[in-house]
Each structure stands twice: as C-alpha cells, then as structure tokens.
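Cont'd.
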Amino acid sequence: MVEATGANTHTKRALEELRQRILSGAFPGGTRLFEVALAEDLQVSRTPVREAMSRLTEEGLLERARNGGFLVRSFDFADVLDAIELRGVLEGTAARLAAERGVTEARMKDFREIVRRLDTCFGAGPEDVDFDGYAELNGQYHLALAALPGSATLEREIARATRLPFASPSAFLPDRRQLSAFRRSLGLAQDQHHQILQAIVRREGARAEALAREHACAARRNVEYIFANDIDVAQAVPALALVGQGSRPED
Amino acid sequence: MVEATGANTHTKRALEELRQRILSGAFPGGTRLFEVALAEDLQVSRTPVREAMSRLTEEGLLERARNGGFLVRSFDFADVLDAIELRGVLEGTAARLAAERGVTEARMKDFREIVRRLDTCFGAGPEDVDFDGYAELNGQYHLALAALPGSATLEREIARATRLPFASPSAFLPDRRQLSAFRRSLGLAQDQHHQILQAIVRREGARAEALAREHACAARRNVEYIFANDIDVAQAVPALALVGQGSRPED
DNA sequence: AATCGACAAATTGCATACATATGGCGGCTT
DNA sequence: AAGCCGCCATATGTATGCAATTTGTCGATT
C-alpha cells in the first residue's frame, strides 16, 4: 500500500521525508528519533511515524534502540570501504554463478544490450562522455548482473547490501565537475564491463568473479581519492552525507 | 523494549508465537496473514500484531504484500542451496579479511579456544562424539569467524544472511539418530576449522577464503544427502520446515 | 461463457486516549 | 564526592474506534 500502488498515505509521506532527511545528513549518527516530536513536525499521528521508522530500519538507515524507539545509524569510513568490499564480493559471486550455471537467453540479451548502450556514452574524444547516460546505464548494468544467475536469494542479498547510498554501484561515479583523470576511470570501468561479460560467456567463473571484484574496487579508489584531496565531502558526494565527519582516514 | 530488556510485552509475545509457527511450517509459503484474525487468535490488539509482523519482515520470514498486509515468504530447494553458497562466500570473505588485515589478540585467543574445545567433542572412538557440545561450539565458531576481521558491516551482513534456519551454520549438523557416514563428516569439518585458523594466522587470504567456502559446502552435501535418500524432511531437519514440499530436486 | 458494474464485507490506515516503562533530576545519606 | 532513592516528565506500548481502501460476490449484459 505504501509503495506498490502509489497511494498517498501518511506513512509513505513520513517515510519519504524521514529518509530524505537521514540521507542528507540532517541527523547525526546515533540521534534518537522520537515519535511524538516527529509526528508533530510531520503533522501526522504517531502511527504512520512508527510505521515509517520501522521501514527505515528494514532499509538499514535506522536501528532499534534497546528500550524501544529508534536511532539513526552511524557510519564511518571503514563502513564505506567494507560496504564496497562486500558489494565486490557479492557481485563477483553473481558473475561466477552466472558463468558456472549459465544464463538464460533473455537475460544475456538484456545484459549485452546494456553493455552496448554503455559504449555509446563515449564519444570520439577522451573528454567526450555522456555522464548522465553512463550513470543511468551503469545502474542498469549492476542490476542486470545481480539477476544473471537467476538466484532470487543472491539478487535479494545484493539489493540489500547495496541499498545504502555509499554502497551503491553508482555512488562514486564522477561527473562533469571533477578532474579529468578521475573521469578517465570511466573508460577503464567500461572495459571491465566488457570483460566480465566475456568471462561469463566463456564460462570462466573464477575470472568473472575476480573481474567483478576488481571492478567494485574502482569505487574504493574514488573514495580514497576524495578523502586524500580534502574535498568537501557532502558537497561533492551526496552518498557520503551519512558518514560521520570525525571518521576520516588518517593517512 | 521488545527484546533487549526481556520486558514481557504483547508485541514480544506475538513475535515469538508467530515466528515459531512460521518456522514450524504451519503456514504455507505465500499465505497471507491478517491482522484482525491473528489479533483474536493471539488475544492482543492489532497494534502488537502489526508490530510483530513488521519485525518478522526484518527477519526475512515475511514480506510485505502489494496493497498492505504481509505474506509468509516461500522458499524452495534452490533457495536452500543458494543460502548455503552465500554463507560460504561471506564467511570466506571474513576469513580472507582476517588473514589480510590481521586479528586482534583478544579475538584470536577466543577463536583458538573455541577450536580447542571443539576438539574435546571427539572421543577415542570414531562414534564417540558429543553431538550437543559440537553443535553449540560450532555455532560459536561461526560467530567468532564472522567477527574476526573487526568489520561491523561484514559481521552484520553475515548475521543477516544466516538468519533463516536453513542458512545457519548449524542447520544440517547430524545428530545421534543419523547414519555413521553422515556423522563422520564432523571430523572432517573440525579439521577444516583448524585449517581455516591456520590459514588466517599465516596471513594466507586466498587459502582461508577457499577453505571457508569449502567448509560451508558440507551443508550442501548434507542437504543433498537428505533429499537423495527421501528422508522425511520435516522430521529429520527442522531447518527445512520452511521449504515448500513441491520443490524437491529431481535428480 | 466472459465481462462489467454495483455493493457489501473485509482489511488496512490512522488518530486518539489510556496504560506502562524509562530516564533524568533533585535531595538525602554516607 | 559518590551513591541511592523517589518523583515527575517523557516516551513507548497498546487498545479501540473511525476512515479509507481493497477484495469478493452477485447480478446484468453482451
């Protein structure tokens, strides 16, 4: 009711508003959210606020406090890196299982088409990149990869593990404001997209897994670059708004 | 409030009763659960029933239906195998990261102690095994393994992925009613416990990962054994009560 | 037989009031 | 100064009634 039908319920409103606030970093990690205050603020009764907070717990943005109530989860730099590592492991598993078990014609056709369209995001010049198109198709690529082996269990787990902003495959893609060396990584990433496809087609499970893992490591490099260059994190990378400011790496 | 303090709330009661029913296979997969009927049945109001169902969704036993309400999730044989595969991958990752990153003294001491105590479950004769002790310590071993790298993200994800009964490391351990060939696998498993420890100590990440994955595959062998021998599943393996009866493998 | 519309029943969404539990603060004692 | 206790304010747990939505049934029409 809240989402599937698009019905405009109070719970849905509260859920979307709270999610947006959390994702924008409006609540420091560890903040306790109080039903009554939020109900007033959002102008609904406690019931939809509770429901919304319960759902945000499912989404991984809140956790339940020990004597009832909800806390905003806190994340640090290590969580970001581990989330990226985990995504690599899970997507690597999807690639391996796809290679080992085979892929249906329909899914392979879809996957190939996405890779082909990703190619069209690159023009003649090294700076000639359709960033928006790439970001959209990159998201599609990763969803399709997760679905390739036809395992609902794995697909579900990948969806869960990549739900938080900084865990998403699209979290650290460069855009037009960023340095060109940073942007050139897109071309390398697209090459990896191709290689993963090839490894799967050739039934090379270990290779597919290794490639997909390395592919996810690009996100780690991008994160490290951002922190190493003291870039204003919240400004440059919305995905990191959730991450505590005191948790930057020291090197 | 529901769990941390042990307070005896209606929500807690409803949660435990519904969980137990679901885990015992009382509701076929896909069954819709109705608030009003359950509230009457459990003799509480709708509010704690809703809360309990929301939590069971977090636990992975229910899913939200499209226009509100909740459905009991259904699982088939492939889900069992994929859950085992996923556990192997995640525990393998824990082993690898432990080897790569190192382990604190406290955690390593704890881990060694568990392995040592697992050894004491085996007596002089091949049939002389303390099954209950083994099962208890096996669970501890796997929890400790998940915690070794000191990554809250990974530990949390492993906990989630192993939450369902058939995904648990202890799901398919043999007990005293089962065949001796089946039981002998415990000795092999314990050898693997040792080898994983050794690989971590030696900083052999790839080896640790491969061993932990293979270790998880024992569960797959056990499942396949159960099905291949037409054993009454619900009777022999409570962990499989959740799995649909029409989804047995055909080979 | 299939489809559509109307209506009733059932279910979920929600608000509100009351009950219960928790946490913080102040005062007192050691 | 530290610890303990009591009190009160606040937050959560819960029940219940009403509103809104969804589902199912039945009859009419093609």
